[in-house]
Amino acid sequence: MTDTNIPHSATSSVPCEDVPIPPRFWWLKRISLAFGILLVGLIAVRVFWGYEAHRRLQAEIDKYVAAGEPIYPEDFDQEPVPDDQNAVKFYDDAAAALAIANEERQSLSPFPDEFLETLGRIRQVSQLVESNASSLAIARAARGKSAVDWGLRIRSPVTSLLLPRISTYRQLSTLLCIAGAYSFETGDNHEAIERLRDALALSDTLKRHPSAVGHFVSARMDQFIVLTAEYVLPNLQIGENHAPTNRMATPSQMRALVAELRNEKPLREGFTHAMFSQRMWLLDEVRLLQAGSSTLLQSGFGSNHPFMWIYRSGPLGVFGPLVELDGVFLLRHVSACAHAAREETLGDAIATLPLLADLGATGETIIHPLSNKYVTPVENFLEIHYRARSMRRVGAVALAIRLYEVNHGQRPATLADLVPDYLTDLPLDPLGNGENNLGYQPDADPPVLYCVDPNPADDTDVSGGYRSEGTVLFFLNGDRPHP
Fold first, then answer.
1. Which pairing describes strands 472-475 and 439-441: parallel, antiparallel, or unpaired?
2. How many helices (H) and strands (E) does the chain have?
3. Which helix (H) or strand (E) segment is 244 a member of?
4. CA geometry: angle 275, 279, 285, nearest 5 deg
5. Are 391 and 226 a contacting pair, CB within 8 Å?
6. What span, in angstroms and rounded, lies between the C-alpha atoms of 120 and 46?
7. Between the N and C ends of the chain, which has fewer C-beta atoms within 10 Å?
8. DSSP for 58-123?
9. Separation of alpha carbons 206 and 199, rounded Å
10. Rounded to whole angstroms, how far apart are CA atoms 194 and 251?
């Protein structure tokens, strides 16, 4: 019997187990489950990737620590040195005593072309030299000091470290070269050589600066010293001094300067130290980037890098391990550059470096965000170093040639004639193939001493002795072409 009093709404509220779930909801569940599994997988991969990247970076750091090489900022701390024994204190005082009028600043330009212009009007700089007699005297006193303490305690962030000395030291070095040329022009050949020795001592001190910048500024100082020697040597009077009004350079002076130029220990050790310093700075940048406070980002790195936005998410976010892994790559490359300077020639040094991918390619730019910016400059440092070696070697040999010429009335027919009375041995060409000594053409027009190529092409920067590839020249008659 049917109960007709039961409401229709009551019967419709009873769930029906036979009604199927629409297909769209099944797919939504499956997609959600798959996405959850994928997300968990990605998080697991990211955690492992981050762990492995950090492990590799730390293992690379531990390798340098075990080798006794400096890697952290505090590793570059120096033992304090008493002021009366510290060459840096003397050079600081000499730099502080510089008296340079505004109209004289052009004479102390860091550019080779402008330096050569100053040498061409050397008699017009008497006021500059005379007003800086006190500074020059202090620099002379510093030459006998071998201990060095820069008074710097480097800490992170390393890029915040100010290097005020380097600019004033460069000015002081240029002044010493100008004073040497001026002494020569006014008849004091003895003092001309002493000024070059003063400048070389300052340069070798700066090579011990705890920064890569200091070392490579000192390479430019070496260049100016050799350019000044090129200016004075053709007519330099050499002999024993008897006339106080025309003091000659002495043979012992000449031999001392030759030995100082041939002593490449400060140059080699300075380069290695500079690369270690560069490595320390780059590691500090990796660590800062991990913390989301890299000075690379603050200084506009991102504006030069099309994918830098992926590294800006807090403490490196998803793509953080790329930076640590690239840090490993970069530390290895800089370390290889540091040790490559042990090689005799630039070609041999470059051959020891690891092969590099095309870091400018889009994929490599993402994978190597730091190396893409810094690997090429590091290799340029290596080239500058070997060209500095070349400048010092041609300068030393040119001094020996002049001393031979004074004693024999003519230049040697070959460089072999200089051994053993004027040189202990013939230096190799640092830019050559490892089998050739420096080039020498005494009968050329003009006569030259050179590395690699005796015939400068149109693109040779003969004004400064440098170009991107090719020749380092020393003009034995002092007749360097001007650009």
1. unpaired
2. 17, 3
3. none
4. 145
5. yes
6. 65
7. N
8. HHHHHHHHHTT---SGGGG------GGGBHHHHHHHHHHT----GGGGGGG-SSHHHHHHHHHTGG
9. 11
10. 12
Dihedral sign for Cα atoms in the order 433, 436, 440, 445: negative
Residues in the chain, total:
483
Query: Which amino acid belongs to residue 310?
Result: I
* Amino acid (one-letter) located at 96: A
pTM for this prediction: 0.85
Rounded distance between C-alpha atoms, residue 422 and residue 411, angstroms? 12
In 310-353, the DSSP E strands lie at: none
Tokens of 54: 């950090």
Q: What is the DSSP string of 166-182?
A: HHHHHHHHHHHHHHHHH
Cα Rg, the chain, nearest whole Å: 32
Per-residue pLDDT of the chain (483 residues; tens, 9 = 90+): 445 554 544 444 555 556 565 666 677 778 888 888 988 888 888 788 888 988 999 999 999 999 999 999 999 998 899 999 999 999 999 999 999 988 888 889 989 989 999 999 998 999 999 999 999 999 999 998 999 999 988 888 887 676 778 999 999 999 999 999 999 999 999 999 999 999 999 999 999 998 888 988 999 999 999 999 999 999 999 998 766 666 899 999 999 999 999 999 999 999 999 999 999 998 998 887 776 665 554 444 444 444 454 554 334 466 778 888 888 988 998 999 999 999 999 989 988 887 665 555 545 666 777 777 777 677 788 889 999 999 999 999 999 999 999 999 999 999 999 999 999 999 999 988 888 899 999 999 999 999 975 444 444 444 444 343 458 899 999 999 876
**Residue 9 CB-density burial (10 A; 0-12 exposed, 13-18 middle, 19+ buried):** exposed
C-alpha separations of 473 from 121, 227, 255, 439, 479 in Å: 22, 10, 22, 9, 11
For 279, the token pair is: 């490595």
